Model the fold of this input.
Amino acid sequence: MIKIIIDCFGGDHSPEANIDGALAAMAKMPDLYLILTGDEKTIKDHLNGKTYDADRVEIVHAPEVIGCDERPIDVIRLKRESSMIKAVRLLRDRDDINAMVSTGSTGALVAAALTRIGRVKGVIRPAFCPILPTMNGGIVGICDSGANVEVTPDHLRQFAIMASLYMEQVYGIEKPRVAMLNVGKEAEKGDEIRQKAYILLQETPEINFVGNMESRDLLSGNYDVVVCDGFSGNVLVKTTEGTALELLKKLKKDIYSRGIYKLGALLMKRMFMEEKEFMNYQNYGGSVLLGTSKTVVKGHGSSKAVAVEKCVEQAYKMEVSALSSKMEEIIMRYEHYEY
Done:
């Protein structure tokens, strides 16, 4: 049985989206067991009347809620009865629990995971790895995307190893093509950190390193993994998502500006709907925090039920594939330093 904790009171659409998404994932996976943390009465009220296997659902009362504007260190110290912090403690203390999913505060989740759960042996720093769709119908993982603002060449090599294994084991991509985000494709481009990292990545046979990547090529379909520092990665992901959303808005505005455009759009309605679904981040789950000793998946704060369902599926597949042990096996082959 794979046991996954759901932080039911994180995110803009909690607890409804969190609970409904988790139940939808459980309906697909007969060996999935859910542990729901949050206000017990509210959770039970929402479950009332729903069809689900009650023998595979456990509720843990956690009455406090974390606000997005609260300092992570204060959350860890002062909100021990919140749905997120209680979930993290349970994940740490119970050997039978495999993973957790939260759509709550990113800062609080990272701080709690690193201080309470710990890292896979050999991992210097865990890193976020969100997924985006590519123009050829595939996907690309970006690692890191917010957890580590400053990095070293050793960090980037570990990000590449962890993300490559993740894409291979969870998404079935054979020999994922790994690129490093840089200001140009030439090997000598970038600062000293990127230049040294380029050499390290070339010297790591466990990854399929294909060179540098410029940000404009992120969705080209030519890469399966992009490694970068958390600051650049976060800007890259949010700029890409924001551009896609704004283009859809402009397209809709232009269609309604003239009658002939409306007629054309009517004929192409199905195609427009397909494109909208293709660009909808809700369909691609959340950002896995790679490198923690137990699986943690961070969903977008605005995640709806379908996104939470995908997050639970990500966590489930990571556990089934024993990803953490495979990461440790490869990372421990290389000399590493604590920073």
Q: What stands out?
A: Residues 230-255 form the longest helix (26 residues).
